[in-house]
Amino acid sequence: MKKFLAALLSILLFLHLIVIVLPVEAGAASGDDSLALYAQSAVLMDADTGRILYAKNAEEQRPMASTTKIMTLILALENANPDDIVMISDYAASMPDVQLHLRAGEHYRLGDLLYSMMLESHNDSAVAIAEHVGGTVPGFAALMNAKTRDIGCYATYFITPNGLDAEDDTGVHSTTAADLARILRYCIMQSPKKEEFLKITRTNAYSFSDVEGVRTFTVGNKNAFLHMMEGALTGKTGFTGNAGYCYVGALRQEKRTFIVALLACGWPNNRSYKWSDTRKLMNYGLEHFTYRNVWQEPKLPELPVKNGIPDRENLEEEARIRLRLSSEEPDLKLLLSEGEQVQVETHISQEVTAPVEPGTLLGSVRYLLDGQVVKVYMVEAAEDVEAVTLGWCLEKLWRKYIL
């Protein structure tokens, strides 16, 4: 009985520690619907840090329809040349609406198809792009899934390049609101092709022809949010029967960049719900979050150095070493709501052994919000300390007993 009680106590203590240690997303709790959103899953994100400021069922996996195409675009920009010539396959030409009505055997410039896919969400253009970049649609899907892991999205699974509902032996074509926001953050903040991404997705209208010059097209941007709010930056709509209306978009005002991701935001006849929710979340961010300088001068101790040679003038003292930050940034500005405070943790090595060279990493200073690390400064040795040698020992004996 005593062993059972001891084991039970250990389990309860372990669970208690988990509750204390696990990080919590900033802002609202995962299932919060205090803003009375239509979307079944929603996220408001600070694009600069990736911190989630508001979340409703942010980690629930759902189909994401044509918001998928932001990943298709960024992969095409990063892995191919817009001047490449794409031949249209029978499979690409067979895609259902919405489509450009491509014909098998036609040739198009890749860059033109990117505008077709993003401005009017053409499914046939998306497949033609995928086949050109990845060889096949499954090959391109493998690139998509590898990229999601690189970005840090582990609850997303891609099967199609256009977002049509799909399922295979591995899973359902789906993502989460949190992952979808992270993907757009990569596209506009981190990718080496971010400027090209923004240029395409912000274009109002675009005209082009097939390579042979037989057919000419003009496509117009269907992202109505670009004209709804000052600072609207980019975005992509989506709809399928399983996904409902979806949207992911970004806005920039006063050096603040917010990303909104919405999944399952109504079904016909609720087309306008996504715009209502997007405005509501963007306004929530603008009204509640401002930049504050949270920099604090760290108090770094001098560390004793084991087996180190002390100052030549004080051979009897213990060797010690001064510390400094590897890169000091006295202006650490974070997007915070009123009342939010950062926690600062200093972690320094407990034991240092000579020899030590300047720049040797010996710890870190971490800034945290709600348990999540938002900034790390590395702590390093500011000077060198040589290791004790036979010559030093003889000098010490000479000074102590002979001089």
Automatic annotation (TrEMBL):
Domain of life: Bacteria
Top EC group: hydrolase
InterPro entries linked: Beta-lactam/transpept-like, Peniciliin-bd_prot_C_sf, Peptidase_S11, Peptidase_S11_C_sf, Peptidase_S11_N
One Pfam family here: Peptidase_S11
A GO MF term: carboxypeptidase activity
Entry's EC annotation: 3.4.-.-
Coiled coil regions in record: none
Name under which the protein is recorded: D-alanyl-D-alanine carboxypeptidase family protein
PANTHER family: D-ALANYL-D-ALANINE CARBOXYPEPTIDASE, D-ALANYL-D-ALANINE CARBOXYPEPTIDASE DACB
Family: Belongs to the peptidase S11 family.
